């Protein structure tokens, strides 16, 4: 099951060795261990741009993983792949599933906002003002949630919220 990594670097190799040692020591079920191996292999494939392989690994991990917190990260990573491939509707579905399991996942909130912001720009370029405004408002809502959870992150989003008048500087 372990994936052969083409571009192994010291940090990746170290992480893999440590993760394997920890898994052998921790009292986890066979399924949980297998789920982790699939997740780790998915992350490795994803980092190499092997998205189809990464998705296969993540879907296998989802079949085995029972912990909602861990499942949220698997779903989030699946959303990342679909977003990278321009499949924004699918990405939104997976980000929302991740948030259902883990509402404190600011990176999912941020990525949802980025998709809505992108859709807002597309609509504005097509002179669809109502759709553009709606998408920008959705983006603002998700960025506000992400910033609430991670106030030191998403500086560009914070600046956008301020420059567009969507955030009150006196409350921050």
Automatic annotation (TrEMBL):
Entry GO CC: chloroplast thylakoid membrane
Membrane topology field: Peripheral membrane protein
Keywords: Chloroplast, Membrane, Photosynthesis, Plastid, Repeat, Thylakoid, TPR repeat
SMART domains from the UniProt entry: TPR
GO terms for biological process, alphabetical: photosynthesis
Keyword Nucleus: no
UniProt-listed InterPro entries: PSI_Ycf3_assembly, TPR-like_helical_dom_sf, TPR_rpt, Ycf3/AcsC/BcsC/TPR_MFPF
Spans of repeat TPR: 35-68, 35-68, 72-105, 72-105, 120-153
Primary role: Seems to be required for the assembly of the photosystem I complex.
Family statement: Belongs to the Ycf3 family.
Classification via PANTHER family: CELLULOSE SYNTHASE OPERON PROTEIN C, TPR-REPEAT-CONTAINING PROTEIN
Name of this protein: Photosystem I assembly protein Ycf3
Annotated source species: Thuretia quercifolia
Encoding gene, per UniProt annotation: ycf3
């Amino acid at each position: 099951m372990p994936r052969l990594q083409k571009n192994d670097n010291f940090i990746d190799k170290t992480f893999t060795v440590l993760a394997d040692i920890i898994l052998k020591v921790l009292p986890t079920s066979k399924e949980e261990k297998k789920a982790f191996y699939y997740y780790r292999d998915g992350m490795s494939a994803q980092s190499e741009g092997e998205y189809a392989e990464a998705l296969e690994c993540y879907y296998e991990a989802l079949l085995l993983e029972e912990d909602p917190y861990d499942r949220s990260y698997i779903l989030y990573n699946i959303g990342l792949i679909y977003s990278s491939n321009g499949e924004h509707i699918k990405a939104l579905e997976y980000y929302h599933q991740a948030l259902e399991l883990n509402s404190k996942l600011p990176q999912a909130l941020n990525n949802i906002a980025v998709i809505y912001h992108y859709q807002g720009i597309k609509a504005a370029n097509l002179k669809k003002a109502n759709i553009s405004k709606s998408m920008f408002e959705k983006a603002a809502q998700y960025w506000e949630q992400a910033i609430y959870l991670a106030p030191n992150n998403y500086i560009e989003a914070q600046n956008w919220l301020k420059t567009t008048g969507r955030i009150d500087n006196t409350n921050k």
